[in-house]
UniProtKB/TrEMBL annotation, chains A, B:
<keyword id="KW-0804">Transcription</keyword>
<keyword id="KW-0805">Transcription regulation</keyword>
<feature type="domain" description="HTH gntR-type">
    <location>
        <begin position="21"/>
        <end position="88"/>
    </location>
</feature>
<dbReference type="InterPro" id="IPR008920">
    <property type="entry name" value="TF_FadR/GntR_C"/>
</dbReference>
<dbReference type="Pfam" id="PF07729">
    <property type="entry name" value="FCD"/>
</dbReference>
<dbReference type="InterPro" id="IPR011711">
    <property type="entry name" value="GntR_C"/>
</dbReference>
<dbReference type="InterPro" id="IPR036390">
    <property type="entry name" value="WH_DNA-bd_sf"/>
</dbReference>
<dbReference type="Pfam" id="PF00392">
    <property type="entry name" value="GntR"/>
</dbReference>
<keyword id="KW-0238">DNA-binding</keyword>
<dbReference type="InterPro" id="IPR036388">
    <property type="entry name" value="WH-like_DNA-bd_sf"/>
</dbReference>
<dbReference type="InterPro" id="IPR000524">
    <property type="entry name" value="Tscrpt_reg_HTH_GntR"/>
</dbReference>
<protein>
    <submittedName>
        <fullName>GntR family transcriptional regulator</fullName>
    </submittedName>
</protein>
Length: 233, 233
DNA sequence: TCACAGGGATTGTTGAACAATACTTCAATA
DNA sequence: TATTGAAGTATTGTTCAACAATCCCTGTGA
């Protein structure tokens, strides 16, 4: 411990590394993962007793985790009946797109004030998606698409928007599990994603916004149709 | 009970009327109210034991309520240290305005597609504020201002945006308690609120958006200055 | 001044208990 | 047959008590 402590300041912030988390949060993370990747089907009931036994946590802790995920709209809590995996409908998809339009378009248009690496993050997501396509990894394409739109939202440089986008896209992915999802749903959008990214990198933010708006119209339309057309046996 | 049950379908949905709520939610509502109106000072610590005794609820139930409010950013939960009333800083105010700009400006610009009564709700909030001013009810002016901006967000007709706006404005009100808040902070904005409303009613949505953007710049600037200027003894 | 070792207070988590509510089953009735 | 009603069962809602883990304060010693 010499007097010069400069190197300490130069250390990268430990950040969340040592931010211990409560059991409830870890359980919530676990459940969130299972919900997003489809292991827990929409509408499925989560029994407090059975899940508690499975995860080796008490009912009280489990209920705290439920509150977390309920607030994220991934679970719905019906009083005296239990908690269920949310089952978004067509109206929910429409509403999610309303919010996405507001946030993502604003983010793209705010491009000139975007943080330094923000555009690069978008590009990274584009390549991540193209890499997944090259390997026929459809699951990976979906994940990359989520990362792509989170990165778009990140152009605002707003922690609150980032958090909202995270939730919104998680819920959207859940909605995706409701319908009979063709595995290559997102593949057609990869080229469009790249096109928008190129515009961003070139500084043509308004044009990029128009392109993105076009994407929203098409993707929403396709999703809603997938919801309403087949009565879903 | 005749065979024709048509009239049942015609009945208005009972909706939330009989949606009983859990104790945790009622406690959360109670705490939220106290936080918003300033009864619980920012930074104050909420002892599980004492609050539980005060409200006559168990620690477990209280903790569920804490999770709710933590997710709304009104409380911060520090592991093994307890929960505290959030104490937003200047960066938080800046971030809240980033999100408000994205949502409210998008809402105003979406005016043509707005639900029927939405614009009227904005007008009602304007008059609510003017009424409060006439009576020198400064608290009422603040409340009316919140209602006004919630109504602006309501132009999108999106439940998710509505919910987000609710949280955002509650948090903003909390930030307001941090600084030495002049009681008539919002009074100067009443006329501007009316001007924007008139533009909405006239269908000049883009002009209204420009006016609103101007409001954001001025209000944010004033708030941030109030935060950073006086070191706040 | 600093380091460090108690000791007290608070949170984190559990498990059990009981009340309240929902779901199921089945008999009774029209 | 279809509907009502009355048990009985399973699950959630909430409380309580207990204990471990952690923090915070304080005093001691160097």
């Amino acid at each position: 411990m010499t007097a010069t402590g400069d190197w300490i300041d130069d250390l990268p912030d430990a950040g969340d590394d040592l931010e211990r988390s409560s059991t409830a949060e870890r359980v919530a993370d676990l459940l969130r993962g299972h919900i997003i990747n489809g292991a827990l089907a929409p509408g499925a009931r989560l029994s407090e007793e059975r899940l508690g036994r499975k995860f080796r946590v008490s009912r009280n802790t489990l209920r705290e985790a439920f509150r977390l995920l309920g607030h994220e709209r991934l679970l719905v809590h019906e009083f005296n009946r239990g908690v269920f995996v949310a089952k978004p409908g067509a109206e929910d998809v429409v509403d999610m797109f309303r919010m996405r339009r507001a946030l993502e378009l604003a983010a793209v248009r705010s491009g000139p004030q975007a943080p330094a690496e923000a555009v690069g993050t978008v590009g990274a997501a584009v390549e991540q998606g193209e890499g997944a396509r090259a390997q026929g990894d459809w699951e990976g394409i979906g994940t990359a698409n989520m990362a792509y739109h989170r990165a778009i939202g990140g152009l605002l440089g707003s922690p609150r928007v980032d958090e909202t986008m995270r939730q919104l896209l998680a819920e959207l992915r859940l909605a995706f599990h409701v319908m009979a999802a063709p595995r290559d749903f997102y593949a057609p959008y990869l080229d469009r994603n790249r096109a928008i990214y190129e515009l961003l990198a070139a500084g043509s933010f308004d044009t990029a916004a128009e392109e993105l708006a076009g994407y929203f119209d098409i993707a929403e339309n396709q999703l809603v149709r997938a919801f309403t057309a087949p009565p879903r046996a």
